[in-house]
Amino acid sequence: MDKVVSTIQEAIAGVQDGMTIMFGGFGLCGIPENSILALSQSGVKNITCISNNPGVDDFGLGLLVKNKQIKKMIASYVGENATFEQQFLAGEVEVEFNPQGTLAERIRAGGAGIPGFYTPTGVG
């Protein structure tokens, strides 16, 4: 299977409203900037985002936050985005917090087909 695409629009062509999308990177480093920008311009909405954070106000996932395209954020940290904070406090976006190690293990386990795992943090 050839997974190489010629344009960013081709790369996001299958993204639909309500999808769950995992975004790589850590903080603002190594994020898929072009994909995020294209998604922000696409009009897709009600996205569940998996990432360690929602970016900052005008960069990274902050572009999707600004457009109110994110329905739910699964993250370990959300403290650098004032717009996200306002939306959260207004009940406009749902947040699921995970410790960073637990988030990484959820991603790894999910990719390996493991439906559940143990962490001391999750006990009790």
Structure description:
- The protein is of the alpha/beta class and 124 residues long.
- Helices cover 31% and strands 14% of the residues.
- It is built from five helices and four strands.
- The protein has helices at residues 8-11, 33-42, 62-66, 82-89, 100-111, and strands spanning 20-22, 47-50, 70-75, 94-97.
- It has a four-stranded parallel beta sheet with strand order 1-2-3-4, with no helix packed on it.
- It is globular.
On the 0 to 100 scale, the average pLDDT is 94
Query: Which strand order spans the largest sheet, edge to edge or round the barrel?
Result: 1-2-3-4
Order of helices and strands: HEHEHEHEH
The number of strands is 4
> What is the distance, rounded to the nearest whole angstrom, between the alpha carbons of the first and last residues?
45 Å
> Which sheet architecture does the biggest sheet show?
4 strands, parallel
Write the topology of this structure.
Blueprint: H1 8-11, E1 20-22, H2 33-42, E2 47-50, H3 62-66, E3 70-75, H4 82-89, E4 94-97, H5 100-111
